[in-house]
Structures are given as C-alpha cells and as structure tokens.
Amino acid sequence: MQYSSGQVRSNKAQTGDLPATIAARQLAQEVPVGRTSRAAGTDTGASKYQQDLELLTRRVETRLVAATWTLRRMPDREKNFLHMRTMMWPDTVAEASTYAPQDMTALQARRNVRLSPQEIDQMQPALDLLQLLPDPVDRKLLFWASWHQDGEVQVKLPWAKVRRSIDSSQSRWTMKRRYQNGLRWLASIILAQR
User: Fold this and answer.
1) Contact in structure between 151 and 65 (CB atoms under 8 Å)
2) How many Å apart are CA 110 and CA 20, to the nearest integer?
C-alpha cells in the first residue's frame, strides 16, 4: 500500500517519540541559546553556533554528573533490610565500643543528604540522553565517567576508575577524547531540536 507523505507523518506522530528525544527536547527548551541559521556562511553565525555548542556541552555534562550522583544516593531497600535484620538479630553480642560514632568524610556527608523531588525528576531524562549515542561503549564511558565524578564536575577525571568500570584497555587520552566527543554529539542533537 502506498502512503502519501502526509499519511506517513501522521502515522509516525502516532507511534510516539523515544524517551531520549523527549529528554533532548526538554533540555533544549531549558537552555537559553539562540537559534542560528546554518545556511548563512558568515563567521558570526558559525561562531555563535560553536558558542552554543560549548554551552550545551557543559550543560549536558553537568546534568549527567548530577543524574549519576542522584542515582548513587537512591536508597537501597535490600541493603537497608539486611542492615535492620542484623540489628534485630545480631550474630554476636555487641560490645560497648561496637557502636561508637565515627568521623565522616566530606563525601560521606554529602552522600547522606536527603534527595529532593526535583533531583529525582531530572535524573531520568538526563540518563535517557545516553540512548542517543550510537555506540554502546560510548554510553558506558559517559555513564561511568559521570559516575566517578562524585556529584561535581571535575577538571581531572579518575580515568583509572573509569577504565576498571568499563573493563577496557584504552588509554586515558582515548577515553578523554571519546568522552568529549560523546558530550559534543549529545549537545549537537539537543541544539538540532531547537
């Protein structure tokens, strides 16, 4: 059966979009960048496009780091159950020094901060953006590089931890290049949604 172009568009609109493209549209609406025409061959249009791309790249990286930090801090019900079970039925008799207060590091203190509903709502769309990357290795790389930044965008990433997490033998320079290219890829897709 032959379809005209109008029928194809209406059928495509009925099937719905992927969560990743919806997340890209939402992020494109949130970021205040100007619309530039690529047809104009002026240097100002190209430089404006590059500025918007760099702004979106930083914004996507910040969103991914925040999303993985939120995911890290989500409560683990099984762990809590096992902890409560040992508290109710201890294997051994506790001594006086067993429950002495311990000093917390800054990372542990930040991890214990209660999650806000806004952080949880922003987590899933940011993680959905990873589906827009064509290579699954790049998806893993971006996820684990964001995961190991501990909730703050860092200048020097712990590439040794990332390498162990993705079980790779790539050099840190290769991983850094793929990380930056993946962020730019996502930013260009978001910029195309505007």
Assistant:
1) yes
2) 29
CB 133 within 8 A of CB 185: yes
Locate the DSSP E strands across the chain. Answer: none
Position 9 scores a pLDDT of 39
Taking only the tens place, the pLDDT of each residue in 38-63 is 554 556 767 888 888 898 899 999 99
Count CB neighbours of 60 within 10 A.
25
- Token duo for residue 75: 């409560």
Q: Give 61-110 pLDDT, tens digit per residue.
A: 999 999 999 988 888 777 767 766 666 665 665 565 555 456 777 777 77
CA dihedral sign, ordered 168, 169, 172, 173? negative
Specify the pLDDT at position 12.
Answer: 41
Quick one: 52 exposed, middle or buried, by C-beta within 10 A (0-12, 13-18, 19+)? Answer: buried
- What distance in Å separates the CA atoms of residue 49 and residue 38, rounded to the nearest whole number? 8
Q: Using an 8 Å Cβ cutoff, are 166 and 144 in contact? A: yes
Do the beta carbons of residue 186 and residue 129 sit within 8 Å?
yes
Residue with tokens 């005209």: 4
Task: Give the pair of three-digit tokens for residue 87.
Answer: 């508290």
pLDDT at residue 13, as a whole number = 42
CA angle, 66 then 145 then 60, to 5° = 45
